[in-house]
């Protein structure tokens, strides 16, 4: 698997394909321009960047913004973490020259090769090494090159990192540990450059799982993850690395873990997603509100997948009575199953339609059939329609 | 003097290994008489091109390599406690030697009592250290600031560092004073104040962790190293490979200490590996390596002391393989007579017992008498039994600790689940008896 990994990572073919598949789709169904490039959710104006209550205080501080894509925002977050914390280090395979997705560019030069360094090619080693550093009070920001390759580290993450504090009675902890990893579909990643393994980890008490949808979110959530006193796995949707561009506050800021964000208010159906799936949902809502005149959808980004914000989702469903959940990962045993059953427990009397789950099929992630595999705009729209017409 | 001597022998091992791997080098150089810059393996910034661009890396000989001869185990005293070369006797002061001896006897006695207690069903599980008590030599050679990562058969380290009998027994009884709040199986000790990382069951996981912790110590400028224990069975795990390779490439001050006791539960080492034990692998990773007699406390002490110097002063890892024999069963869940001859075990226990060996050493120095032996054994047994009955009487930890410490704070889902359990306990008091548990 590593040979392929190595071969693909240097490929410059990602960029044009991302553009072709996601950004530059011609006005397709009902004139809707699909993809992150046309998203209304991205903050393209500096004033817009501070418009959320979570960032309002930054505007008051007169903090400026800079146009950044997602990999630059991740890089900026790590740069701030390394500046503000002498004990912070960044390491993994190929991070020293800047990383195969450029997320660590310039950090080794700025902070020294003792603090930003390459490791041998061993995921279980990277995770174990990071746990050891965190166990003696350092801040370890480890990178797993693709989320698809996190499985060799599964034992270290699940049996060691997650249980470190609990098993020692809080004598020791690995709160300083953050594992970053590029995840999810990229257009042509096939089996081992496309996976969304979050649900494997949500079944493991002791871990926090976070995934951002945009550069502003990536910076704030990553800084919060690095500083959170629990081990955090931070999945970065790799398709957004270059495609998602926002005006990002240049200052040091954190966004709260464990809090979902309501991106669009609505009254008839609650739509829940996270990561790059948010953009397919945005398009599905546009299509639904066009084709089913009068309906209004509420869009929620979970942001933290474990522990997830039950209250925000439950409150929304109590209002709307309908719920659609979407993620790229396979349906069976996926995060949507957890959300659906929890909402059913809390909102049984409010539900007016069966909860709809729009997910990847229960197959490995396929290369040639990606378009038919992913929970695309059309599949998400169809689920909204089903929920509304039930 | 002694240190220099030991360093030399370590370097010899490294040189020998270099000669073996590149046996053809000299010959080729003589024949072709080319003048190429020597590239040493420590040269920073070397690339594969510089290594393989010169002709001295090639040979006309078609020859596959195998282990040439087995590494010999370093020994200071033989099984009668006689020091073979006085220059290697660490000559520790009487109190220090007696501290080691008494710690070994204490551990041995505690093992006996707790093994029997498990047999009576009073604790759920136990693992003894029979035959491996000399490993306490590592503890004597370390500094308190050195961080220890263990596997599970390393209570000697805690005994030496001053973990009290109460602390041992509270853990084994999972009572309210157990630092681990009753969450882990017996013998999974940990002590923040003694720099002993909490034991976990998954084998080998501590190895790359020890490398990472050592790297952190290096960055923070601490004059300290980590010491990582594991058995020869655990060395077959992928984490062994990861941990040693990372420590070597990232120059981590860590001592890898392998207890090669011949068995991983029922699996003899002949089914565990085909090469020359674990030590031969260290050389392959570019790590200074030594094999020692694991029943000889002074061999272990000397090797660890020099290893610590290499690790801390030169900031790189060391591997020590201590050859010993697991005299006890693997654990209380194991009957080792099912896979090995009881007679063999008894012979080993009789002929080459690490405690007896050290006793002969201290008797020869007139530092210990049979009377003192008897008195100490009696008093230590009494103290253990006292701690035992105190620990057995204590309450289990408060039930709230089922939910605490999963995260730094209770997460909303845990709050909900804790309330749910509390309701159940109230609803079914006849089913959930909480009398044995501390109130929160």
Q: How would you sum up this structure in a few lines?
A:
Chain B: Its EC number is 1.2.4.4. The complex is a heterodimer of chains A (390) and B (440). With 390 residues, chain A is α/β, with parallel strands linked by helices.
What are the SSEs and their pairings?
The complex is a heterodimer of chains A (390) and B (440).
Chain A: H1 2-9, H2 14-23, H3 46-49, H4 56-60, E1 65-69, H5 70-84, E2 88-92, H6 107-111, E3 116-118, H7 123-135, E4 139-143, H8 154-161, H9 164-167, E5 177-183, H10 198-202, E6 208-210, H11 215-227, E7 232-237, H12 240-243, E8 245-249, E9 261-264, E10 269-273, H13 277-291, E11 297-301, E12 304-306, H14 310-320, E13 323-330, H15 335-347, E14 356-360, H16 370-373, H17 377-389
Parallel strand pairs in A: 2-3, 2-4, 4-5, 5-7, 6-7, 10-11, 10-13, 13-14
Antiparallel strand pairs in A: 1-8, 6-12, 9-11
Helix pairs in contact in A: 5-11, 7-8, 13-17, 14-15
Chain B: H1 2-21, H2 25-32, H3 48-52, H4 94-119, H5 136-141, E1 147-149, H6 155-161, H7 165-172, H8 206-219, E2 226-231, H9 238-249, E3 254-260, E4 263-264, E5 267-268, H10 279-284, E6 288-293, H11 297-314, E7 318-323, H12 342-351, H13 354-364, H14 370-393, H15 412-427
Parallel strand pairs in B: 1-2, 2-3, 3-7, 6-7
Antiparallel strand pairs in B: 4-5
Name the assembly state.
Answer: heterodimer
Main interface pair?
A-B, 49 and 49 residues
- What fraction of the residues of chain B are assigned to beta strands by DSSP? 5-15%
Order of helices and strands of chain B: HHHHHEHHHEHEEEHEHEHHHH
What Rg of chain A do the Cα atoms give? 20 Å
Helix fraction of chain B by DSSP (H/I, runs of at least 4): 40-55%
CATH architecture term of the largest domain in chain B: 3-Layer(aba) Sandwich
Number of strands of chain B: 7
Number of strands of chain A: 14
Regions with little confidence, pLDDT below 50 for 5+ residues of chain A = 6-24
Terminus-to-terminus distance of chain A? 45 Å
Top CATH class of the largest domain in chain A: Alpha Beta
Tell me the count of domains of chain B: 2
Largest β sheet strand count, sense and barrel closure of chain B: 5 strands, parallel
CATH domain class of the largest domain in chain B: Alpha Beta
* CATH topology category name of the largest domain in chain B: Rossmann fold
Whole-number count of domains of chain A: 2
Q: Into which percent range does the helicity of residues of chain A fall?
A: 25-40%
CATH level-4 homologous superfamily of the largest domain in chain A = Thiamin diphosphate (ThDP)-binding fold, Pyr/PP domains
Low-pLDDT runs of chain B: 8-46
- The side-by-side strand order for the widest beta sheet of chain B comes to 1-2-3-7-6
Domain Dehydrogenase E1 component (chain B): 101-399
Keywords (chain B): Metal-binding, Mitochondrion, Oxidoreductase, Potassium, Thiamine pyrophosphate, Transit peptide
Organism (chain B): Rhizopus microsporus ATCC 52813
Subcellular location (chain B): Mitochondrion matrix
